[in-house]
Write a structure and sequence with these properties.
By secondary structure, the chain is mainly β. The chain has 2 helices and 6 strands.
């Protein structure tokens, strides 16, 4: 390994994956309750997300999620499947993404 380069991390833990929370409003408490739906929604790819953008990337009327990652993960593009799940498809939509993007504007 070259000096100054971090090794690729082969082990993925629950802490290496971004989270998606659903806002479940609770009428009796009069405030939201956030439910982690990451796994069931397909947010399962390793990353260290530092920036997120919500936009209709494929122009189908449904919001998609773009995540910029730092350290060992490439950026991720989660395309909305219109049923509460997402599919990661960055390689299909982009020729290149930044490694260690850290943020977006």
């Amino acid at each position: 390994m070259l000096p100054g380069l971090a090794p690729i991390r082969p082990i993925v833990t629950i802490f290496d994956v971004d989270k998606l929370y659903r806002n479940d409003w609770n009428d009796s408490l009069k405030h939201p309750v956030y439910t982690d739906v990451s796994k069931t929604a397909g947010i399962i790819h390793p990353g260290f997300g530092l920036g997120v953008a919500i936009a209709d990337i494929n122009k189908d009327g449904w919001k998609d999620i773009y995540v910029t990652n730092d350290f060992y993960g490439s950026d991720l593009l989660y395309i909305n499947n219109k049923n509460g799940t997402f599919t990661e498809r960055a390689k299909e939509y982009f020729k290149h993404t930044s490694q260690n993007a850290m943020a977006m504007t």
